[in-house]
Amino acid sequence: xxxxxxxxxxxxxxxxxxxxxxxxxxxxxxxxxxxxxxxxxxxxxxxxxxxxxxxxxxxxxxxxxxxxxxxxxxxxxxxxxxxxxxxxxxxxxxxxxxxxxxxxxxxxxxxxxxxxxxxxxxxxxxxxxxxxxxxxxxxxxxxxxxxxxxxxxxxxxxxxxxxxxxxxxxxxxxxxxxxxxxxxxxxxxxxxxxxxxxxxxxxxxxxxxxxxxxxxxxxxxxxxxxxxxxxxxxxxxxxxxxxxxxxxxxxxxxxxxxxxxxxxxxxxxxxxxxxxxxxxxxxxxxxxxxxxxxxxxxxxxxxxxxxxxxxxxxxxxxxxxxxxxxxxxxxxxxxxxxxxxxxxxxxxxxxxxxxxxxxxxxxxxxxxxxxxxxxxxxxxxxxxxxxxxxxxxxxxxxxxxxxxxxxxxxxxxxxxxxxxxxxxxxxxxxxxxxxxxxxxxxxxxxxxxxxxxxxxxxxxxxxxxxxxxxxxxxxxxxxxxxxxxxxxxxxxxxxxxxxxxxxxxxxxxxxxxxxxxxxxxxxxxxxxxxxxxxxxxxxxxxxxxxxxxxxxxxxxxxxxxxxxxxxxxxxxxxxxxxxxxxxxxxxxxxxxxxxxxxxxxxxxxxxxxxxxxxxxxxxxxxxxxxxxxxxxxxxxxxxxxxxxxxxxxxxxxxxxxxxxxxxxxxxxxxxxxxxxxxxxxxxxxxxxxxxxxxxxxxxxxxxxxxxxxxxxxxxxxxxxxxxx
Length: 724
Description:
By secondary structure, the chain is mainly alpha-helical. 61% of the residues lie in helices and 6% in strands. The protein contains 31 helices and eleven strands. Helix 22 (473-479) runs antiparallel to helix 23.
């Protein structure tokens, strides 16, 4: 009998076909020493490599193909420069500063990105979203400094006369504040705030590049960024609406700008300036019609229509000769000086007030620049360096802040114009900077009579693309409800609360949605495809056969502390057996069986054999093994490891084996570190399998051997009783 029992022992596990390679890892100290030695090594080639890495223009400019590239670069640069001039002046309305500073910003940003950028097509400069965020900070600080936001910020005729004749005529005492030892008026203080925020944003971006923190942008999902941009566009539209009607109302400070501004607009609608309203209607009609024509016939048009420049020129002439400012009290841009102001240090005393405001500016500016750079690099088959892009955009903010400029970023509309007009390299940015330089040196004063409502029209019409995203909501909902909800939440929070909080809400909500999806992932039981070795979801595919007495469970998410309970509950529900309840039921049945056996033995005058009775009354389950398909589990943490260990132990208590299949190497390493396979991984061969089919075959062999042992034991019980 002993020989028979020995022949029914559990067969050995299926041999492992794959063997892990032994990785030789260098000690951390030696790796650190090697990197330090490499970093401090100084040689001519290394200096040349460092400089060319910091200034990529040194690599590609000597190889510039004049015959092939120059025409496209010159044309695209001139066209973008022509578009850039009116937009630079217009976006200063959003930023709350004088128009000249928008021209400065566009000029310096194009030159610096020409030297430091790695993208061949991105157009860096003034951007509506950045201008809006700067403007909110500027208006808040200007208001706190005691300046009146409701007054018309256009320069008066007295100021123009003073600039022209070099006199110092004054009418009333103007409120000033002391800044860096000088008395600073409203416009001086406004640009000082903008410069301080810009300097800090640039410092943050450079620090992010130094410490390799570019990964921060991965938390800005595409739906969240789209929703944020759309909500910000609606805020921009709201802020500019007062200029269309010629209303002189201050920008709301605090949360709910959109709601409060529209309430103020309708409360003051009776004060509408008819001259501004008519001008706005005409300009918007011309701009929208030109955009529609350009979109419809873009294949036939070799270059974009310079509609903004034509509208600005025509409106300036009409305002100047029609004397719209003096006759109809229409707000105009005011005097725009020529030339450059001397460089000046940013107001370091102001930075403590705006140190937090610069953070979202830095992140959004970098995110838009890198995403556009990578998008056009893929389109044209070259690569960009995200870390260098962060350095470039950082210095596009730091250096111009010494020259009265504010925050810049890559702009999608102008980048697309560059691409469509034959841009080949960043030489086009240099050409755009030269166009802006001509305006700064010679043509800036001609824009003095330009109405603010015309600038507002240019801004609002440029938002058409972002506002059209509302039409895509149904398609987003059909494609992915999760992405659609993230878009709606980010858009609503940005429009209804504030731009900064909208960004924060969007990031947090998108991460919560991701966590929620990992907490409630798809789970399934698998079946076999005919007589093959493939197993798939029984609910999703037809003609699958569930393995006999083996449950194959797939969990499609990482297993960590947040979804450990969800994993266990879904597994118990799928297989239909929870170990604790099953064990409780068995204990109750065993107790009843023991009591009944004891009574019967006492009545018959026999000795009770309780162990034999317990073994015979155990309930047989529909399955003997659970195979966990780990192919969709990228990683587990300590909580996930504890869940695996608990499962093996609990199911073993009711006679069910738990096997793992299709684990990746990272998962295996975690399990080995947690002693899941026992001491020295002695149980790895019987618990871990490279395929589901190998696990199923092993489970059936082990179960067959166990059943034979049980049958032999069952037949031996009467023999034992007879001997007694």
